[in-house]
Amino acid sequence: MNVTTAALVLAWICLVLLVLAMAGLLRQIRELQADVAGLSPRGRRPVVGRQVSALAGNTRTVLLVLSPGCPFCQVAYRMIAEAAEAHPEIRFEALAFRAAGWDTSPAVPLRVDEQLFADLDVPWAPALLAVDPSGIVVSARPVGSVDALTEQLRDLLDGAEPLPGV
Amino acid sequence: MTVMATICAAAALLLVWSGAEHLRHPAALGRVLAGSGGRLAAPAARTVAVAELLAGVATIGSLLAGIPGQGWALTAQGLLYAGFTASLWTRYRRGDRTDCGCTAVASVVGPAGVARAAGLAVASLATAAAGTVPTAPAAGTAWLVLLATGAGVMAVLLHALPAAIDGLPAGDPGTPA
């Protein structure tokens, strides 16, 4: 074997080693990406687009997310309850991870579910979510004031579908 | 024989590189040897490092400078790599995923580390068994340049390969330079 042929063979050996190293690095990057995605801090994952099967139903659901200790939550709940009484064709629900002695209304059942609250991972409270019949969150916005909630409710009620048979 | 000689020279360079690193920082290899050696870990790590340096320098000297004893040097190098292969394979089979202690670039015990050691053991022993490899003074300048550059590039690639393929040990971001 002359020097040129040997150089060519060695070059190919080095190329194969490089390809192996690159493949290994890419695999490690993919594993890291998967790990990072699973370790995202609370409230950093986008809420919209997340599927929560516990909220799936026959129609769109307007969900008010509450938190004990939040000063505006009772006001927001009362406003949602008024909207629910005025629009019986729409399904309203409230969700909290712990009961906090709110004055509840039969028009807006309060669901106390720590696991569901954690699954939704909503970074704000109160927050107003619209969930489609398959359980996918289609909109999520924080509720900061009476005016903001009124506007959000108007937007949501305009796009909501009535309950079947109502 | 040129290709085999270059691979053996790369293996020898890797041995010298690893031996120097193990002499400077014997802790990683010491931790590996501590499993069987207890308090003798540090002296054992230094002994292995010196053996690596001697075998590597002897092989490089015999290949590049035509120093006699090429067969012995290649055999010693092959046996060292065979020993590393056996140790790594045993740890890998045992499910050990700690730092292999091979070089200063931390990498877990994995298939790439085992394959590297096994491949270099086979290449060294096969070349030793095949007979004398032409050395630099007799083989010419082109051969010497090819051997030196090829071995250098291959040694660098082989040095980083286990960390790239097998990955870093958990919780160990690597040794700072």
How far apart are the termini of chain B? 37 Å
Oligomeric description of these chains: heterodimer
Strand content of chain A: 15-25%
Q: What's the pLDDT, averaged over the residues of chain B? A: 84
Task: Output the structural class of chain B.
Answer: mainly alpha
* Overall number of strands of chain B: 0
C-alpha Rg of chain A (nearest Å): 26 Å
The SSE string of chain B, one letter per element, is HHHHHHH
**Low-confidence residue ranges of chain A:** 162-166
CATH architecture of the largest domain in chain A, by name, is 3-Layer(aba) Sandwich
CATH class of the largest domain in chain A reads Alpha Beta
Protein traits:
heterodimer, A: 166 residues, alpha/beta, Glutaredoxin, 2 domains, five-stranded mixed sheet, 4 helices, 5 strands, rod-shaped, B: 177 residues, mainly alpha, 7 helices, 75% helix, disordered C terminus
Structural commentary:
The complex is a heterodimer of chains A (about 170) and B (about 180). Chain A has helices spanning about 5-40, 75-85, 115-120, 145-160, and strands at about 60-65, 90-95, 110, 125-130, 135-140. With about 170 residues, chain A is α/β, with parallel strands linked by helices. Chain A has 2 domains: about 1-40; about 55-155, Glutaredoxin, CATH 3.40.30. A 5-stranded mixed β-sheet of chain A has the order 3-2-1-4-5, sandwiched between helices. The longest helix of chain A has about 35 residues, at about 5-40. Chain A starts with a helix and ends in a 7-residue tail after the last helix. Mean pLDDT of chain A is about 80; it is low at about 160-165. Chain B is mainly alpha-helical. Chain B contains 7 helices and no strands. Chain B has helices at about 1-25, 25-35, 40-65, 70-95, 110-130, 135-140, 140-165. The radius of gyration of chain B is 16 Å and the shape is globular. The interface between A and B is medium-sized, with 17 and 21 residues.
